[in-house]
Amino acid sequence: MRAGTYNFTCEQGATFTRLIELEEPDLVADPTGAIFVPLNIENYTARMQIRRTLESTSPMITLTTENGRLTVNPGPDDTNKILITLTDEETMTLTTDGVYDLEIESTDGVVSRILQGAVALSPEVTR
Questions:
Q1: What domains are there in the chain, each with its CATH number?
Q2: In 1-127, beta strands by DSSP E
Q3: Is the pTM of this model over 0.85?
């Protein structure tokens, strides 16, 4: 699976949420890959880091299913969604634009990078 690119803006000092829906080509219905179906990620874990640059040795923030910042399949009918959540306190710690990627891991240890891109920071005025 090839990672998609999604650039987003994060408002410093505000709660941040994004719901990501994952799909994959239905090669049985259409061998050209033009038809998409939900990607079942039941029992997967997820992890994401935001770093200042690709070369930065430490992340500005780390989000995982274990620390509660990423929720795989957040609703009762969800089998292909990931909810990203940052509190206002966490976005306050971001001080510059950055880059990120989002990975999922299956129960048998297969890791797939599903999303990547730039994070633009909109600085907070009211503190």
A1: 4-122 (2.60.40.10)
A2: 4-5, 8-11, 16-21, 23-25, 36-38, 45-51, 61-64, 70-72, 81-86, 98-105, 111-122
A3: yes
